[in-house]
Amino acid sequence: MKIRADIAELIRQGHTNASIALRLGCAPSTVGRARHALRLPPADRLGRLYAEALPTGRVLGDKPTRVQTSPAQAAANRRALLAALAEAA
Fold this sequence. Notes:
The protein contains four helices and no strands. By secondary structure, it is an all-alpha fold. Helix 2 crosses helix 3 (28-37).
């Protein structure tokens, strides 16, 4: 099987099949066949590990966690929204 060099390079960098397919405009199955032909293991489903200053052994998520809004801030946001809606009307 002839393997595209750009697919092989992204596989070796640790990208997932879906990520490579989206980036290069090909099917994920094409990337999967190339990975199999190169005898490389499937990509980690959690994505690549992020560099940490002090390695903890945990995988950091790629999505930031949502910060809870305090009741006082929620009330202020509600007042600001109602004032903006009243001005627009």
